[in-house]
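Q: What would this complex look like in 3D?
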Amino acid sequence: MSDSSHLDRMQRKKEVIDERIARASEERGVLILLKGNGKGKSSSAFGTLARSLGHGQKGAVIQFIKGRRETGEYLFFRDHPQLDWHIMGQGFTWETQDRQRDIEAAEAAWEIARGLLEDPAYNVIVLDEMSYMFKYDYLDTAPIVEALLRRPAHQNVIITGRTMALPLQEIADTISTVQDDRHAFRNGVKAQAGIEY
Amino acid sequence: MSDSSHLDRMQRKKEVIDERIARASEERGVLILLKGNGKGKSSSAFGTLARSLGHGQKGAVIQFIKGRRETGEYLFFRDHPQLDWHIMGQGFTWETQDRQRDIEAAEAAWEIARGLLEDPAYNVIVLDEMSYMFKYDYLDTAPIVEALLRRPAHQNVIITGRTMALPLQEIADTISTVQDDRHAFRNGVKAQAGIEY
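A: Here is my prediction, written as structure tokens for the whole assembly.
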């Protein structure tokens, strides 16, 4: 491509993008859903959290499934003064194999989430792997949708998990589906510290 | 679902998953590509970086497009002792509108990346928005594929960007495509600190 046709193309692109930016003028917190089978949903939520903390905002994470305290994300973030990190899960549901225990853990996690969603001090709340709570009927969506709709106007919420309940999709501002095009695990590479946990 | 059918289902699931884990026994660094139009690619890379740093690993980030130093991710990570952060871009290409300047910035960024890909001290390297360098023909893929293949065996590399050059896809271990199902921006919500930057 010549320098001048590049310039033409980029000038047109800049006009379109500048116009879109001018139209997007509303300032408010958003509900972001990160779903799908691909790698990168929870890590995306943690990256956004880092971004928020970088701006001096206050955040919270509730892990609905993970029960381990040796993950890199927890080791990295746990001492941050502007962040609460709640590990509420008892492990993956096929590890616990105990439906009643899972339901109790889910309800305890939701009680904490409910409090955060009423607290204007929190700018960003990550509900990590919450979607499994609906898939396995551990939690009802109705009270959760209600709490999300009533939350402080500036508060951002990120929910992750493979399959996302439809009532959450109906009220979300941003939805990304992470497609699993390829995964090293299927080619025999072991889950490793820093990448998978 | 009854507790006993839940237990059956979870026991079968555990068997399948345990077998898969046993088969995945290779330990080595992986090349991860995060592509697609949806929100969450760079933030996923930064989240994985946090995870790696949490395990005491050493990391580096090269931002090929972004030129600003006021992003939340930079403010958050810049002082970490185990991390180098290089902001090499001059802004988005439709902002600079100068093809020669963009090419020079791309080449300078690649020179730094090449050095990191030869250095076994680095466990994880994020090449943020590098894919645009190929889309606009600012860089050739051949020397980059070669450097990636020759890198230290334990080194993880994450490359982000909307469209990913095919030669990179051919050698990648993990590829996730982030689909844009919905974006708050299109519904008039302004890009905001902590979420978009």
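A: To summarize the key features: Chain A touches chain B through 85 residues (CB under 8 Å). Chain A has a mean pLDDT of 93.
Q: Very helpful, thank you.
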